[in-house]
Amino acid sequence: MNQEKNWLPLSQLREPYNDAVNYRSRTQREFFQRIFLQTDALTKILEPQVFFLMGEKGSGKTAYATYLETHKTNDHRCKLTTMTETQYRRFVELKRQGKLAYSDYANIWRSMLLFVVGRMLVEKSKNPFHYLTGKFSKVEKEIQRWSKNALNPEVESAFEAVSSEALNAKLEAEKVGGFAGEIKNQQTEKKSILRHHLLETENSFKEALSSLKLSDDHILFIDGIDYRPESIQYQEYIECVKGLGEAVWQLNTEFFNGIRDSKGRIKIVLLIRPDVFHALNLYNSNSRLQDNCVFLDWATTEKEYAESPLFELSGRYFSAQQPFKVEPSEAWEQYYFTPQSPGYTFKRLLKISFHKPRDILTYIKITKKSSTRGKSKNQVQFHEKISSDPAVSREFSDYLLGEVRNYTAFYMHSDDFPKYLKFFQFLNGHQSFKFDAFSDAFLKFKSWANGEKFHATEYLRDAESLLQLFYDVNVIGYSEAVEGSGETYYHWSYRERSANNISPQVKTTGSLIINPGIAKALDVGKKFATSIEAEPQRRGKHQLHRGNKSRR
Pseudo-torsion of CA 509, 514, 515, 516, nearest 10°? Predict the structure, then answer.
């Protein structure tokens, strides 16, 4: 197939990155811009009313923001910043010290965000001519006024700025109310001082930003919201991020939209998973989803895959690296050559993946490593049966389970995850089953779990709760037969979830099935002569399978 073309050997194809953040460096930008697929979502993100970029983990949220940050357009300048564990821990620590109430979270986030926006404007739009005109002098003055160290990362420096007064709040409170000696009065004074400081910071930055006459639109993308540090309790984290969401909404709708006499507009966009957005329970959230959100959905079917953006993106990785112009679909078929069944490899991927760009790129990386190890460096095609290679299947299955583990880390401690996976051993090798069988396995699992320590116990409440968890993370789906048609519909959370159905529910009346892509990593599919309940003496000493060895 296409042997007359000088296809690049597998050994010379560049390795794809799982995380688009790696493409922000100068050495990687050019390659990233070649392989990046510009979909309709890219244009929609730039629309002034869009404040949320939503998608499953690995759906490309960071990739879109990275592309817009590194790819200059005529009228948009973008910046991607990532929240880290340090910032969240500082919020919680101030709360624990009595210097913050939950109601203060949005206030401190607004001040921090204005600080970061000010830095973005200077970084992205200031040029040598502005040193003479002083166009950014007011903004720079406010940044210098509140920042102790201009070399700090932007968000970290912002926190230093807006909370600097809070660091001395205790001393100030003692001076004001020391004669009374009442702790309650001191805490009230601390909060009062911090709130005054936050209001002063917010107003001064708003005044400085309002004075700018921008010629280009500026967008600040905020990433890292989906990661909850284990040191922070779930509810504390939710309150912190909820404050961030409200602060972004307030600044976008009440301040940035109202800046006059400026051609260029400013907005902040949150990169967020749909389940996390749902957990925040923001005011009027359904309207925000409909009017102010871009939802990344790559799901397709075997019948429609050839025309899907996911297939085009997959083939683009290969076509963009060739020394000649070629269509992405032709490039994919060249490397994954299956003459007896065109498109076989991709259609198989649809059955064992979550239909995300990261899944496809990871599969390419795994098959490339397998095909080039000890083989000819001039090889320009994967082996025709590469998709059935046991080692490839196992490594890809481990990757998928790792994605599930990272997904659940938002809700549970890392120690809980392998314990919940223990459930599948009580299914005794069955990969498809009815809810009654699931419920029987749950009772056995819960009996075992009584001897274990779980941090997240809400999924032990009943069989329905545990099933919904496994459905949410795409480990279990269900099928329904259409009466009279002979057709069977398969339901997976990643396919059902949308802006109109952000939290799809599993049906217990359907036939339940374990995701075939993850089944190998779960070690299901074989019936063992000795069931686990016959070995109570080994309780608590369960061995983690290969996919669970790593720790975050």
Answer: -130
Distance CA 488, CA 495 (A): 15
Rounded to whole angstroms, what are the CA distances from 317 to 17, 34, 63? Answer: 11, 8, 14
**Residue count (the chain):** 552
- Residue among 105, 414, 409 nearest 236 (CA): 105
Residue 495, C-beta contacts closer than 8 angstroms, at least 6 positions apart: 299, 355
Dump pLDDT digits (tens) for 117-134: 998 998 888 777 666 676
Please count the other Cβ atoms lying within 10 Å of the Cβ belonging to residue 201: 26
Token pair 């409909």 is at which residue? 290
Q: Do 360 and 330 form a contact (C-beta atoms < 8 A)?
A: no
Q: Which two tokens stand for residue 259?
A: 């800046």
The tally of CA atoms less than 13 A away on the side-chain side of residue 397 is 21
Cα-based distances in Å from 389 to 362, 366, 487: 15, 11, 30
Digit-coded pLDDT (tens) for 19-76: 998 998 888 999 999 999 999 999 999 999 999 999 999 999 999 999 999 987 778 9
Query: What global pTM score does this model have?
Result: 0.86
